[in-house]
Write a structure and sequence with these properties.
With about 190 residues, the protein is of the alpha+beta class. About 30% of the residues lie in helices and about 30% in strands. It has five helices and ten strands. A hairpin with a 4-residue loop joins β1 and β2. The longest helix has 21 residues. The two termini are about 25 Å apart.
């Protein structure tokens, strides 16, 4: 996991802050408007936009749902062109240390391409709750590489072991949980 104060993490936090401010401004929303739409406090939104605090996975999920975009599109400046080859050391990594979550954008999003691939790690005994999808009907294919992971979609629990693939469309709340003594590493394909 990246250290909270590592230079790469600071850069990503600043990018997220800039994107949040730009998205809100593009829509003509005040901080109060966004707070109401996302159910994130105005004070937290202000601190996020000023990069004085790092966003958690749960808060990013709420903001993405308010904007109708995926977390990857929020975190990266989306360009018209894309690099066909993305070297591992050039793949941006974002960390939510509060829950032990690491997210590598293996194939950063591009405007002209629909799919993207994420490599994720979730520490043992971790839980991430997303109240609603960034875009209803968003298709996911989750391939568990290591560990054990429980994914709850609209109240239905799925327990995955290495090699298992869970295909789903996001329509409502979802939760990712790992057992107390075992984390998970997985690939998430978003279409």
């Amino acid at each position: 996991m990246e250290n909270a104060g590592a230079p790469e993490t600071d850069t990503i936090d600043r990018q997220i802050a800039q994107r949040l401010r730009a998205l809100r401004t593009e829509r003509g929303w005040s901080l109060d408007d966004l707070a109401q739409r996302s159910q994130v406090s105005r004070a937290t939104l202000s601190r996020l936009e000023n990069a004085s605090v790092s966003a958690t996975a749960s808060v990013l999920g709420k903001l993405c749902a308010a904007y109708g975009i995926t977390v990857s599109r929020l975190m990266r400046l989306v360009e018209d062109d894309y690099a066909p080859l993305v070297a591992r050391d050039a793949q941006p990594v974002w960390t939510d240390a509060s829950v032990g979550f690491e997210r590598r954008s293996v194939s950063p999003p591009a405007q002209r391409l629909a799919g993207e691939v994420l490599e994720c790690r979730l520490a043992s005994g971790a839980r991430i709750d997303y109240e609603k999808p960034p875009r209803p009907g968003l298709e996911h294919h989750l391939l568990l590489l290591e560990g054990q992971l429980q994914v709850t979609l609209d109240g239905r629990q799925h327990t995955l072991r290495p090699g298992d693939c869970l295909r789903y469309q996001l329509t409502g709340p979802n939760t990712f949980t790992t057992p107390a003594r075992r984390g998970a590493r997985y690939l998430l394909f978003i279409v």
